[in-house]
Structures are given as C-alpha cells and as structure tokens.
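> forwarded from #structure-qc
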C-alpha cells in the first residue's frame, strides 16, 4: 500500500482552464459572493480547484493499480451526494454533504452526482470529471435559495463538464456494457432516491456480468487517511477555535450550573468564532453521568463539588475537531478528583509520546490499558491485579479505545483498521479515561461517581506530534486559574 505516500509524488496535472464564476449567488459560497471566506481559485475555504483535481487524479491512480492486467475495460466512478433529510413535515435538517462526494469535488448541493470516467485510448489516471446537478428553477429558488446550475458548478469546482441531473439517464445505458467497469457504493448508497432512479437497475444488470460493480469507498478512505498541508491547516483552525470555546465555557462554569447552559455556551463560542456547526451532539455530563460514555441528554443540574465532562467539537470548512476536558464546576478540584484527574493526565501524556510514524492506534491502546491497570492499583481502586487480569481490569474502568482517525468526519475513515502503522499526515485522537460509577462497591468510596476523560487531536509528523488542541488547558493549575479568573 505504497499509495499512502501519494502526496509525496509529483503529478503532471493539466492547468485548470480559468472559467469565470457567474456574478450571482450560487448554491454555496464562492470567491465572488464570499471574498471574506474564499480566495480566487478556492472551492471550499483553504482548498483550491487544484487540490480537488489532485484528489481525483490520485483516486484514478489507485483504480489503475487495482485493475492492472484488465486491459480493454473503461473505468467509471459514480458518487452520489446526500439528499436533504427532514426532521418532520416540511422541516429540513441543515444539509450536510456526503463526505466522500465532497472530498472529490467540493460541491455542496443535494441531489447531485459526480462521475469520473477514463478517456478512450488514454491510460489512467487520465480521466474526465463530470457533475450532474439540480437544474436552475426560479420557482424553487424563490423558496430554497439559489442553485449553482451547470455553469456555476463548472466554474466553482473546476470539473471538466456539468449537466443537469436528468441528463444522467443518458449515461447509464453505456455503463451496462461488458467492457465497462463501474466503481460505486451500491451496498450503502448515500442517496436512496438517486440510487433507485438511476443505479439500482444498473447494479443488478452488472451483477450478472463478468464485470460486477466494485465499491469505491475504501479507496477514497485510503486517500482521506493522509491529510495534505492545506487540510492540516483547516484542522488547526478547528482545533484552535474549539480550544477557545472550552476556555470560555470553563470560565462560565459556576456551581450549581445547568448542563444545558454549558452546552449553549460551548456552541455559541464555537459558532461565534466561525465554526459552521458542532461536529456531533456534545456530551455535557455532570457528576456520575460522566460514566455514561455517550450521555447527550445534557438536561440535569450539576451540583457544587461535582465535575463536568465535556466532549465537544465543531466543524469548520468541512473539517472537524473532537476534544474532551473534565473540570470541577466550582473551579476547585477536591483531593479525590485531583488524584483521579492527575492519573488520567499522566496516562494521556504517555500515550501522546507514542504518536509517531510506525506505531499504530492498537499499539497506543495496549499502552493505555497497561498504564490504566497500573494507576488503578496505585489508587487502590483495584486491589490485587494478576498479570493476566490487568487488561480485564483496565477495560472495566475504561471500556473504549484510546482513539480514532479524525478528518472530515469525527470517526473518520471507519473502514481503515486501527492496526495500520501511523504515517505523517494521519490525524488521530488520544482519549484515555477512567470511569468509576457511583454504585461500584469495589472502588474506594471517595472515587465513586467520578469519571475523567482527557482528549486531544494529534497530527502525526516526521518529528514530534503536532497537537491541534494544544491551546485547550488540561493542567489542573491552568484549569483552576481559568475557572476563577475575574470577568
């Protein structure tokens, strides 16, 4: 899998012909309408047409590798956008694009299709990129806002050709041909309606031929696993603004305080600093509720003397952050809280030192379990750990993994195993925790009902790891100082 170092290769890409962006509003920000967000030539903030073209080029290179020895076949990749989802009658959720589709073209409208097609008589990775997009429709645009249309889609994204969505039906019959290999995620289509309208019959026909439809998402995930310098810059921005939001939320803590208030404060501070949305429903868990790993009700009162565990992140220009901090809402750690907190912090520091090329998330997980077992013994939470029971004890008090890949998704590239050797450009989370439920009769009483997790976002580099969440305080002194600073 040498492909993962693709970013080091020199590609000879044709210069993208300059197409004038229409001087009207499109279905997403453009350098013309939003010059404060996008520089000329950018499709999404910080990411240029050249970067998107390079991604498509690399995908076709991977397909070339996968199909060596199969001469005489044409290759076509089909990716569907997401649909608009509805919360209830007539009330749409905020639209979020399918991230594999978005990664390859940057187009932000629903009901669209991206096609990458090999060129007759030319070798891969040479290809043409086509978008099929919703047609301009003044009556719909009056209600839902402007659409980019075919001219806007081409000029903004830099693909070779664009057509209205309906025109996709003329392409489908050609794909049925025996000599045509189609790459398309038919097992989990991102748009059920487009799948049944255009792709389902094709998939069934191909299933009976020697050229079955092949899934493409694993190949896209292999590319998404390694971030480019521009992607890392986006993730640094997300990490910085989330860290600032944490500081302001710590400062706004008081005792007693509603979980809902801290949730609102955190979301406000993220969005006020330029985040688009929160990356996921945050966990704002006071007291013993911190022992429910995905507690998202966030509707209880946190009492004086209790800690809050806040696991939150935002999405900024298509990239996300995912940070966890735990602190006492009254601004002062009690002795047992401090003991447990310091133990988790030491484990987290040790795990961070392992984030370098060659190790893997699995290796770091093993280290975390070893260190947790050691700390449980030191704190007297577990009395006599036999060698073979150490991991079992650690897993009882920390039932989750040490981390996951991070990128456009919170749980990024989910098909990529955690056993992969880390490489420069990979981004991971490191999030050890120790959770002691209040009804745990084995643990000393002073620790019961306490849960601590500390999570940072980390870029693997050739040198020491780059911590994207470095601005977010985690030393006890720093946290106590922020909580008690005068407004």
């Amino acid at each position: 899998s040498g492909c993962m170092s693709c970013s080091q290769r020199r590609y000879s890409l044709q210069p993208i012909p300059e197409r004038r962006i229409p001087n009207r509003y499109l279905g997403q920000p453009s350098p013309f309408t939003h010059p404060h967000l996008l520089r000329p030539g950018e499709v999404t903030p910080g990411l240029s047409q050249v970067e998107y073209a390079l991604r498509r080029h690399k995908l076709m290179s991977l397909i070339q590798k996968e199909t060596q020895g199969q001469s005489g076949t044409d290759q076509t990749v089909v990716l569907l956008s997401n649909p608009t989802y509805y919360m209830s009658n007539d009330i749409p959720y905020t639209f979020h694009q399918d991230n594999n589709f978005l990664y390859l073209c940057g187009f932000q409208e629903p009901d669209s299709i991206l096609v990458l097609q090999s060129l007759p008589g030319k070798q891969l990775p040479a290809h043409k990129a086509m978008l099929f997009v919703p047609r301009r429709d003044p009556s719909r645009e009056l209600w839902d806002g402007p659409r980019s249309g075919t001219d806007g889609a081409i000029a903004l994204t830099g693909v070779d050709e664009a057509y209205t969505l309906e025109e996709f039906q003329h392409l489908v019959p050609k794909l049925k041909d025996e000599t045509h290999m189609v790459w398309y995620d038919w097992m989990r289509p991102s748009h059920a309606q487009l799948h049944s309208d255009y792709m389902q019959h094709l998939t069934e026909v191909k299933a009976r031929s020697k050229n079955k439809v092949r899934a493409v998402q694993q190949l896209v995930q292999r590319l998404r696993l390694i971030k480019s310098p521009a992607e890392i810059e986006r993730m640094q921005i997300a990490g910085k603004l989330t860290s600032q939001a944490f500081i302001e939320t710590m400062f706004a803590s008081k005792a007693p305080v509603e979980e809902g208030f801290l949730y609102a404060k955190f979301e406000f501070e993220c969005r006020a600093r330029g985040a688009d949305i929160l990356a996921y429903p945050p966990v704002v868990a006071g007291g013993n509720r911190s022992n429910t790993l995905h507690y998202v009700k966030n509707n209880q009162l946190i009492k004086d003397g209790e800690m809050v565990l806040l696991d939150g992140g935002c999405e900024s220009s298509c990239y996300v952050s995912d940070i966890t901090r735990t602190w006492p809402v009254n601004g002062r750690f009690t002795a047992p809280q401090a003991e447990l907190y310091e133990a988790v912090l030491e484990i987290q520091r040790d795990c961070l030192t392992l984030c370098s090329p060659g190790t893997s998330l699995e290796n770091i997980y093993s280290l975390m379990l070893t260190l947790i077992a050691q700390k449980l013994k030191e704190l007297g939470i577990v009395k006599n750990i036999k060698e073979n029971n150490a991991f079992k004890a650690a897993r009882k008090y920390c039932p989750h993994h040490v981390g996951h890949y991070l990128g456009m998704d919170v749980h990024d590239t989910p098909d990529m195993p955690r056993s992969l050797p880390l490489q420069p450009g990979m981004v991971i989370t490191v999030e050890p925790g120790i959770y002691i439920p209040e009804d745990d009769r084995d643990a000393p009483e002073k620790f019961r009902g306490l849960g601590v997790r500390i999570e940072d976002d980390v870029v693997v580099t050739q040198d020491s790891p780059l911590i994207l969440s470095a601005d977010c305080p985690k030393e006890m002194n720093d946290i106590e100082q922020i909580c008690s600073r005068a407004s």
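QC bot note: The radius of gyration is 25 Å. The chain has two domains: 2-223, 226-484.
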